[in-house]
Amino acid sequence: MKILVVGANGKIGKHLVSLIQKNDNLEAKAMIRNKEQASFFEDLGAEISIVDLEQDIDAIANAAEGVDAIVFTAGSGGHTGKDKTIMVDLDGAVKTIEAAKVADVKRFIMISSFDTSREAIQEAASSFAPYVAAKHYADEWLKNSDLDYTIIHPGLLTNDKGTGQVELGSDVERGEVPREDIASVIAASLENDTTIGKEFQVVSGTKPIKEALDSLN
Questions:
Q1: To 5 degrees, how large is the angle CA 58–CA 131–CA 98?
Q2: pTM for this one?
Q3: Residue-wise pLDDT tens for the chain (217 aa)?
Q4: Distances in Å between the alpha carbon of 12 and those of 19, 33, 68, 111?
Q5: Where are any strands of DSSP class E within the chain?
């Protein structure tokens, strides 16, 4: 299975491409913003596509040609303003969903925010609300598509080493989770059809990732 990782140069993206390249059943295509980011992925033997998410749908669709699945793990980052949040976390996600349709790629995994409900938007601090709203509408767009989607809602992301053990479900208590474990959840979800049509929150826990995914209702 060949996977286009959108936002490959992010921390989760790098972990994910590394995991995919170590898996005999998977192959990564890293979508990055500029060639200066390429060396990490070249060293892993991953294919590279240089596309900025602010380009048009056709540019993203061209990157998606010939892949079996797309993982959207891009984000504008906390240091950018509301304009980048709209252009990357919302419009970039929507364009990638539409590009998947153009390229005839059915499988799509979205990395979202922990809680993107309408209530979460209303309750978020004013500086964080645009980000939650962007993720909310991107998630809704994906759910209303005809794609075989999975939406993953990580807890508070850390750079700790992954443990391979998580708690996941439709409503779990807020907590931390290493980015490396989120990458492992994504990789396992790609090989587990139980996750199609599902969205779930993920924090660190005591259940092995494969077992946790197999228990999804």
A1: 20
A2: 0.96
A3: 999 999 999 999 999 999 999 999 999 999 999 999 999 999 999 999 999 999 999 999 999 999 999 999 998 765 667 788 899 999 999 999 999 999 999 999 999 999 999 999 999 888 889 899 999 999 999 999 999 999 999 999 999 999 999 999 999 999 999 999 999 999 999 999 999 999 999 999 999 999 999 999 7
A4: 11, 16, 20, 9
A5: 2-6, 27-32, 47-50, 69-72, 107-111, 148-154, 156-158, 165-169, 176-178, 198-204, 207-208
Determine the Cα angle at 145 with ends 74 and 21, to 5°. 40
Query: How far from the centroid of its chain's Cα atoms is residue 97's Cα?
Result: 12
| Amino acid identity for residue 210 in this structure | K
Residue matched to tokens 């990782």: 5
Residue 139 to residue 190: CA distance in whole angstroms: 18
Q: What is the dihedral of CA 128, 129, 131, 133, to 10 degrees?
A: 170
Positive or negative, the Cα torsion across 51, 81, 143, 150? positive
Which residues are designated catalytic?
Answer: 131
SS3 content of the chain, % helix, strand, coil (to 5): 40, 25, 35
* Residue 195 DSSP class: G
The full DSSP string for 31-77 is EESSGGG-HHHHHTT-EEEE--TTS-HHHHHHHHTT-SEEEE-----
Task: Residue count of the chain, please give it.
Answer: 217
